Amino acid sequence: MNDPMRQRIKDFLAGEVYAVCGASSDRTKFGNKVLRCYMALGLRVHPVNPRGGLIEGLTAVHGLESLPEPVRGVSIVTPSAVTERLVEEAARAGISRLWMQPGAESETALLRAEELGLSVISGGPCLLVELGWVG
């Protein structure tokens, strides 16, 4: 893996509070697995799902601008069209670190994130693979 990508991953993981866009109550979905991975590591994590509700015992917020506290970064596990909107939402919410999980990225989202000066991890490993999580 190239050095800049490795550095972005290291920087992304250097915090204690995260959000997962595309969090799901379905334990077979990656949005749920990524959420549980953060929880298993003892990190604070906020599920983001437009339907709200409880996911793994945590209250899901409807969007990034509704987060109850600042987050180090956002794991995005959504269809690429949704990711494109989330890039804008993250910038408005003051969130500068995004990890677009495999399948969530799009050229449009990546270009817009670059224009906005956001740090993006994409086209690389999934968070679960990077952290060696098998839950």
Labels describing this entry:
135 residues; alpha/beta; two-stranded antiparallel ribbon
CATH topology annotation: Rossmann fold
Q: In DSSP terms, counting alpha (H) and pi (I) runs of 4 or more, how many helices?
A: 5
The figure for the number of domains is 1
Roughly how many Å is the radius of gyration? 13 Å
Question: Low-confidence segments, ≥5 residues, pLDDT <50?
Answer: none
The average pLDDT score comes to: 95
The N- and C-terminal alpha carbons lie at a distance of: 25 Å
Strand arrangement in the largest pleated sheet:
2-1-5-6-7
**Approximately what portion of the residues adopt beta-strand conformation?**
15-25%
Order of helices and strands: HEHEEEEHEHEH
CATH class: Alpha Beta
Largest sheet, described in full?
5 strands, parallel
- Secondary-structure-derived class: alpha/beta
Q: Assign the CATH superfamily.
A: NAD(P)-binding Rossmann-like Domain
| Subunit arrangement of the protein | single chain
Tell me the number of strands: 7
Helical fraction: 25-40%
Global shape: globular
CATH architecture: 3-Layer(aba) Sandwich
